[in-house]
Amino acid sequence: MNSYFSSELDSGWGVFIRKPRVIKARQMNEYFEVTTSEGILKGKPGDYLIIEEGGELNLCREEKFKKNYVKYSRKDKKDDKET
Predict the structure, then answer these.
(1) How far is CA 14 from CA 1, 8, 19, 52, 68, in A?
(2) Which one of 19, 35, 58, 82 is most buried, by most CB atoms within 10 A?
(3) Nearest CA-CA partner of 52 in 22, 18, 79
(4) Is the pLDDT reported for residue 10 higher than 90?
(5) Does residue 39 fall inside a structural domain?
(6) Which pLDDT score is estimated for 7?
(7) Using CA atoms, how far apart are residues 22 and 6, in angstroms rounded to an integer?
(8) What Å distances lie between residue 25 and 11, 20, 51, 70, 74, CA to CA?
(9) Euclidean distance between the first and final Cα of the chain, in Å?
(10) 49: domain range?
(11) Tens digits of residue pLDDT in 15-74
(12) Domain of life, per the record (predicted)?
C-alpha cells in the first residue's frame, strides 16, 4: 500500500472502492426527460439514458459517465455460450 493510503488509514479515514455494477446505456442526441424515483429529470444532447440492474431508468451527465463507465465488449462470443 502506498504512503497516501497508509496516512489516510492512520488518521481515521477509510479507503473505499466503488462497487462495480452493470448497466445498459444509450447516449442521447437530443433533449429528453425521464421519470425516475427521484422525479422527472431533464437530459441534454450527449447525456446518457441508463437502465439500472433493477430496471429503473436514470440519467447520467456525459462527463460523469465517461469518468465512471467503460464499455463492455465480449472478446469471444463462443466463450459466453459455454459459461
Answers:
(1) 13, 7, 15, 27, 21
(2) 58
(3) 22
(4) no
(5) yes
(6) 58
(7) 31
(8) 39, 15, 6, 11, 16
(9) 35
(10) 22-70
(11) 777 777 889 999 999 999 999 988 999 999 999 999 988 899 999 999 999 998 888 877
(12) Bacteria
